[in-house]
Amino acid sequence: ARELELEFKINTDVAFKDVGGMEQVKEDIRxxxxxxxxNPDLFKAYGKKAGGGVLMYGPPGCGKTLLSxxxxxxxxxxxxxxxxxxxxxxxxxxxxxxxxxxxELARKYAPSVLFFDEIDALAADRRDLKGxxxxxxxxxxxxxLDGAEANNEGxxxxxxxxxxxxxxxxxxxxxxxxRLIFVPPPDQVAREExxxxxxxxxxxxxxxxxxxxKKTDGFSGADITxxxxxxxxxxxxxxxxxxxxxxxxxxxxxxxxxxxKPSTRKW
Length: 267
Ligand code: ATP
Known about the structure:
Elements: H1 2-8, E1 9-10, H2 23-38, H3 40-45, E2 54-57, H4 64-74, E3 78-83, H5 84-88, H6 94-108, E4 112-117, H7 132-146, E5 155-161, E6 179-182, H8 188-199, E7 204-205, H9 209-215, H10 221-242, E8 248-249, H11 250-259
Parallel strand pairs: 2-5, 2-6, 3-4, 4-5, 7-8
Antiparallel strand pairs: 1-3
The structure holds adenosine-5'-triphosphate (ATP).
């Protein structure tokens, strides 16, 4: 169990304010996950049960993982992040066992947010999952989601995929991933926010956030992170040579942006 914990449990020192843009997505998650958890009696009175999972889809690098982590942070829950390949790349029978253990861990640490990335790896039409072995794992996953053997109270499940249409429709039934949320590429306003978030903990000067956001049209959040990483690295090198802080300027960032390819264009 300790090993699993080390592999999947992640600290949650982030909140919604650390995630740029995504107002609609945040609101959906508030309504579906945060409010019911904070006001269980009120929701019950209106016949609304907390629970069920949220499936996010959209281009890679646009903050699905970050937002899930921030959701856990908002409700002071424990956070477990699982890439499905970490479960799939195992001998037959072992995957089911590992998946079960992960859910057990999340129940033990409830309230917890359980985040599954690459959910499409479970799609029934995938070659590597064809046959009974794949089916067994899918059934195990569905049973865990349903809380068939155990109580899932306080366990919130979030999933992410780049291709929801590949997913077995059984996952989308009520009580499972019954809410599908599109996480779009960041628009101008969102990119401005992401730029501001990334500047906060660095010596950045004379930066026009609006201008940089304009120059990063088509960039994912992860692409913008890469822009800051490039600029930071070269400035750090200079700083080490000079033995003092050399600030990152808006110009440096615009220059760095030219080296990064916008990855969401094809969406
Ligand atoms: P994938 O589909 O590839 O798993 P993802 O949608 O889960 O991608 P994240 O892993 O959350 O994307 O994002 C990668 C990194 O990009 C984050 O750690 C963060 O640094 C940055 N990032 C992405 N989106 C945002 C955002 N909206 N606000 C701030 N940072 C962001």
